[in-house]
Amino acid sequence: MRRRPQLVPWKAAGRITEQQSSGDEVVRQTGWVFNNETGDDLTLEQFVATGDQEVAPYLTVFGFRTPEIENETMVEIGCGIGRMTCAFTREYGEVIACDLDLGFLERTRETVSRFGKIDRLRTVHVADGHHLDLPPNRADLAFSYITLQHCNPDDALELSSEAVRVTRPGGSIALNYRARGRGDVILLPLGGLIRAMFRIPKFGPWLSRQRWAARLGWQANRLHPNEVVGPLSPLLKDVTVWRNPKSHITGEGAAVGTFEGINRHHYWVTAEVR
Ligand SMILES: C[S@@+](CC[C@H](N)C(=O)[O-])C[C@H]1O[C@@H](n2cnc3c(N)ncnc32)[C@H](O)[C@@H]1O
Question: Does 82 contact ligand 1 (Cβ within 6 A)?
Answer without folding.
Answer: no
